[in-house]
Amino acid sequence: MQKHFSLIDKPTFFGALFLLLSVVFPLVLFPEQGAEWISVGKTFMTDKLGVLYLSLGIAAILFMLYVIFSDMGQIKLGEIDEEPEFNTSSWAAMLFCGGIGASILYWGGIEWAYYYQSPPFQLEPGSEEAIRWAATYGLFHWGPIAWSIY
């Protein structure tokens, strides 16, 4: 156990643990106020910062395209004469599956129903407008802007 503990980057680990506990404890100790804090935070993030979020996502896409097609995209990681451990398609598949694997298995089949029953933007659950949003809202989570941020 001591051997494994010595491998931990203590400032990073304990800093992250402190931040986590400083958020979790107040939410556990004051659940009603915590729900209100989370609601206020969510409203602020979606109502006030929604355009900023989408703008940063588009900027991330443009930056990734620049990196891919510029000289930076030709930088080889590792030794000059070293062969890559994985080919490009295997590497891309690992990135894709690692980033989306569990989420798509869980949300892929139920996300539309979740948005139909609890639609965003204070729409009436089960309404025709909720059906339209349920069919399209997942693109914000699974589309190119979200992937550029990943």
Automatic annotation (TrEMBL):
One of its GO terms (molecular function) is transmembrane transporter activity. The keyword GTP-binding does not apply. The chain crosses the membrane at residues 12-30, 50-69, 90-110, 130-149. One of its GO terms (cellular component) is plasma membrane. InterPro entries: BCCT_transptr. It is a multi-pass membrane protein. It is found in: Cell membrane. Keywords: Cell membrane, Membrane, Transmembrane, Transmembrane helix, Transport. Belongs to the BCCT transporter (TC 2.A.15) family. This is Choline-glycine betaine transporter. The lineage of its organism: Bacteria, Pseudomonadati, Pseudomonadota, Gammaproteobacteria, Vibrionales.
